[in-house]
Amino acid sequence: MFDILATIVDPISQSIGDWFAEINIWTIIIRISLSVILAACLGMERSSKRHAAGLRTFILVALASTVGSMLDMFFIEKVGSVIPVISASVVIGVALISSNTILYSSKSQIKGLTTCVGLWSSAIIGIAFGVGFYTAGLISFALLMIILSILPKFERYLKNRSNHFEIHLELKTKNNLQDFVGVIRQLGLTIDDIEANPAYFNSGLSVYTISLSIYSKELKKYKTHTDIIKALDSLSYVNFIEEIN
Q1: N or C: which end of the chain has fewer CB within 10 A?
Q2: Structure confidence by residue, pLDDT tens digits, 160-169
Q3: What is the three-class DSSP state of 239?
């Protein structure tokens, strides 16, 4: 298997020269530097959106995965190891650690999932640079930046026009729930699920997480979730309402 891998040449290394594919002091510096710089870009993007795992975390993950993959190459060459143990351990370790960034808010929102996957992806990209597969590392980095910085806008556009959505609703008293359900039906919406939020039991408010579906053809055609929530927010007994993303 390693004989076959040895015949695979990275396009960028091939265009620069054979020395770029070898392990020497310069390529070690280049691989680590590239990995750390690009991971810093990913970390800054996450930090700018106030996510828990930011600049330092992404840099450390990339550094560990790049050095780990180079050590695996060293052991394969010098000791005859057949399993990239360190690289596998780094990927598994990052997956376990990054899973701790997933949180559930009091509004039943899942937070940190994208950052968790971003950390794991950063580790994979670090491994790509560590083994000298610069082309895969650079292309993957570019795609990951697009996914993290550009696609959220498109994703919000699609969600805002979906026939199904969830809301966090705070009513002034529990007696207002019946009135609210009546308004929902008049607007052309159906309630798929409704759940009282126990985190607010002692707040004096009546708080719910509600799953809604749009069945009115007029609403489907002309109204977005933002418009619907704005209309519901105008009700006198609604203390607060927002969509759960």
Answers
A1: N
A2: 888 889 999 9
A3: strand
The full 3-state SS of the chain, as one line of letters, equals CHHHHHCCCCHHHHHHCHHHHCCCHHHHHHHHHHHHHHHHHHHHHHHCCCCCCCHHHHHHHHHHHHHHHHHHHHHHHHCCCCCCHHHHHHHHHHHHHHHHHCEECCCCCEECHHHHHHHHHHHHHHHHHHCCCHHHHHHHHHHHHHHHHCHHHHHHHHHCCCCEEEEEEEECCHHHHHHHHHHHHHHCEEEEEEEECHHHCCCCCEEEEEEEEECCHHHHHHCCHHHHHHHHHCCCCEEEEEEEC
| Phi, then psi, of 229 in degrees rounded to 5 | -65, -35
**Mean pLDDT for the stretch of residues 182-207:** 85
- pLDDT for residue 192: 92
8 A C-beta contact, residue 189 and residue 215: yes
Over the stretch 165-181, which tens digit does the pLDDT of each residue have? 999 999 988 889 999 99
Domain limits, the chain: 2-149, 159-244
Per CATH, the architecture of 159-244 is what?
A: 2-Layer Sandwich (3.30)
In angstroms, rounded to a whole number, what is the distance separating the alpha carbons of residues 244 and 240? 13
Taking alpha carbons only, the member of 127, 114, 133, 212 closest to residue 169 is 212
Per-residue b or e along 92-101, where b marks 16 or more CB atoms closer than 10 Å to that residue's CB: eebeeebeeb
Q: Read off the tokens for 129.
A: 């640079």
Interhelix angle 151-159/134-149, nearest 10 degrees: 40
